Amino acid sequence: MKSIIITGGAGFIGSHVVRLFVNKYPEYRIINVDKLTYAGNLANLKDIEDKPNYCFVKADICDFDAIYALMQEEHVDGVIHLAAESHVDRSIKDPFTFARTNVMGTLSMLQAAKLYWESLPEKYEGKRFYHISTDEVYGALRLDHPEELFTETTKYQPHSPYSASKASSDHFVRAFHDTYGMPTIVTNCSNNYGPYQFPEKLIPLFINNIRHRKPLPVYGKGENVRDWLFVEDHARAIDLIFHKGKVAETYNIGGFNEWKNIDIIKVVINTVDRLLGRKEGEDLDLITFVTDRAGHDLRYAIDSRKLKTELGWEPSLQFEEGIERTVRWYLENQEWMDNITSGEYEKYYESMYANR
Ligand code: NAD
Ligand code: TYD
After folding, report:
1. Is 116 a residue of the active site?
2. 193, 192, 319, 326: which is closest to 257 by C-alpha?
């Protein structure tokens, strides 16, 4: 039986990974380690919380003693590390929290795994430390060079405190392989969308605002380009790479699905309007251009051919189907959304946007 820690399992992507592993591998013990920050929500895992191969441990990844003790108690063989501060706008306001969680937290996970695995007779045999990262570490691509894509060898050039902290954590993970021989893997993925995403990110925020006929704050001119991947496809890639990926390798994961913000926003508006029985496009006038994000990366686009060629992964869902499923999910799960957007978070959101 394999014992696997998944960090950040109460967050957006983590909850999909936990669900996939718990359902697909009844013989594994899946330990979800999450601090439950504002972004962590155990309601994301309601459907699997009673499964016998699942357990939740509330812990901070920066708490080295707690993580090390947990590794010993649970005889952990694998770590899939997703816990992080993940929102660029927050990182601009509060970079320290990003350095603490993303850099020091990752280092704490690495060091705990190192000390525990090196204490075993078999050492690193059969062990794996898999770090989930972002394409944002590569910086930004040009709009007028659509042929340019991020590959696994693209130079790191992070611009935001968020991407700088993720870049730093990626370097630490690779250093633990090169220095101590730890069996690590890193993947860098493009923007995810789908159910259970915290509604400060573009797609769920806008779906909710359209529903309530609130303004849609589009940064700058809405010309920035992102490469969107349905979250369940990312979770499938993580499963494949955790089991079949080569130690010390990096794999880029992306959707080959680039959209200008303003265009994707129009698709979201039309889809919400249609599913709410409104006239399609009726809410286009909610679009409100606001001051651009500081250091706003112009374009991200991933070349995921290595993952396709070496491990046979490709996105399974067409974007039209993915966005339809996503919008439908948020509209059908209004209680989930309302529980988050009421109270403290609402106050935070108002203050965040007060001076825009
Ligand atoms: P999220 O913000 O939705 O979830 C993060 C989770 O980590 C939350 O459950 C939170 O409680 C937990 N967490 C935060 N600090 C912690 C700490 N100190 N100790 C323990 N738990 C802590 O993030 P997400 O969008 O699901 O992203 C997950 C991972 O994937 C991150 O590492 C992120 O950098 C990466 N990633 C995200 C995207 C994306 O589009 N969302 C794309 C590529 C990579
Ligand atoms: P986001 O979901 O924050 O992801 P990331 O910054 O990691 O790409 O934002 C996606 C794009 O949408 C990004 O170019 C910023 C833009 N954006 C807006 O225009 N308005 C908003 O209110 C938000 C949250 C994002």
Report:
1. no
2. 319
* pTM of the complete model beyond 0.90: yes
Residue 327 burial (CB count, 10 A) = 26
Q: Is 78 in the pocket of ligand 1 (CB under 6 A)?
A: no
**Token output for 125:** 């045999």
Q: Give per-residue burial for 103-130: e unless 16+ CB within 10 Å, then b.
A: bbbbbbbbbbbbebbeeeeeebeebbbb
Q: What are phi and psi of 84, to 5 degrees?
A: -170, 160
For 278-312, how does the pLDDT look when each residue is reduced to its tens digit (9 = 90+)?
A: 999 999 999 999 999 999 999 999 999 999 999 99
| C-beta of residue 322 within 8 angstroms of C-beta of residue 257 | no
Instruction: Check pocket membership of 134 for ligand 1, CB cut-off 6 A.
Output: yes
Q: Which atom of ligand 2 is nearest to the CA of 87?
A: 3
Q: Tell me, using a 6 A CB cutoff, whether residue 105 lines ligand 1.
A: yes
Nearest atom (ligand 2) to Cα of 216: 22
